[in-house]
Design a protein that fits this description.
By secondary structure, the protein is of the alpha/beta class. It is 28% helix and 26% strand. A nine-stranded mixed β-sheet has the order 5-4-6-7-14-13-12-9-10. A five-stranded antiparallel β-sheet has the order 15-16-21-18-19, covered by helices on one side. Helix 7 crosses helix 11.
Length: 449
Amino acid sequence: MLDFRRFVSDEINQLLFKVIDKVNTNAPNTLINTNAWYYSAMKYFDYSQIAYSGKMTREGCGFYPGLSLTTNWGVMNALFGISRIQFESTNPFWCSEFTTMTAVPNSIRKSAYATLMYGNQMVCGWTWQSMLSGEEQYLEGMVDWDGIPNRKYEEYKKIATEFKKIEKFFPYKPQAEVGLAFSFPSQIASSYFPEQHDSQLQACFDLFYWRNLDARIVEISRSSLNYKLLFVPGVVVMDEATANKIRDFVKNGGTVVMTSNSAIVDETGQVFASTRPGRLSDVFGIRIGSYEETEVLNEISRKSLKGKKIELNYKGKTIDTESSRFDIIESKGAEIIGSITSLDKDYPIFTSNNYGKGRAIYVGLPAKNEILGTLLDELIVELSIQKGPEVPNGVMARQIDKNHILFLNISGEPKEIQMKGNSRSILFDKDYSGNFMIAPYEPEFIEVK
């Protein structure tokens, strides 16, 4: 299956590169954009070849975060889509489709501001007028079938009016000090695992979303890995080039965090007969043996836990979580910094190993917020990773440049922003002295005086 999907992926890429070359021949210097929904489950192909080629001068997507104003999971998922299409490209991003369906009033505007924090430069509604024919004739646009504008037209008009005030400060270019590893073959190879590579990658993305921190999704074998911290979430397939990149990254002073289901098979999809994590066991200073099924072992839980629930102890802190499986880890020099404490005995689950000038951390569970959050907060301090703006929970924010900050209240409550001195709202043309409030689901763009 892995060989077949690679073959299909290569065929698709060869075709798309031919299309791009034909466009460049017939229309030199034209900006090239597409709706790059390459990760549709049954159509999944390795888009990183195009993303790293530089030939797609404007990476793009259809941004469909769902219909809700009050929840944010749809927006998070769609922002993850932007990041996994953009990879490490520094070109502006274009949302060449943006929802015009029956979204709650103001939710489209909220989503539009959220995309600005991930490098987006374009919000192009799909569609202008509701179609009069074709397979999408039942979809709704900003203008109804008879040509009369509806409420979404007014919302897009408001977005355009406000964007006009701030356009010279955008697109924002993420300043990431952290890389999140993507692997096309690992997505295919993990398709029947309890936790797929994509799910683990998004869990890592979400860690940074909640902390208002920039992170780049990277294809390790194509990346220069110019980062302080690298997450390797469930990268099942560990080829020699990727392993060497990780090894050199740590040897030269980088910190890597690898989670379970990583480095299980080689580039042909065959399980390693050598010690796992394959090709990297010495870097991590461990041996990964088999795995255990949590629900079965909970029959002899010391804490009388049931199902997939487990209790962890990480450096004295108790963490409650769930997992279908966990890795059996043996230290071969690595320090054990956390264990599962709720089963019949303690099982090492967090390890840390010094290798060269850097550090390799292994977590024998799939990536989740409660599992990795405390570790990440420690690493942010330890590695002097630049934090995002200090804001209350429920506020997205980015420091656009030295004197300008974009805020977005994604909660249903007013939020107070701590600010010293004077500032001015470019969006709403008013001055602030000290702290100021942002209304529910509203943006704010501030110039610090």
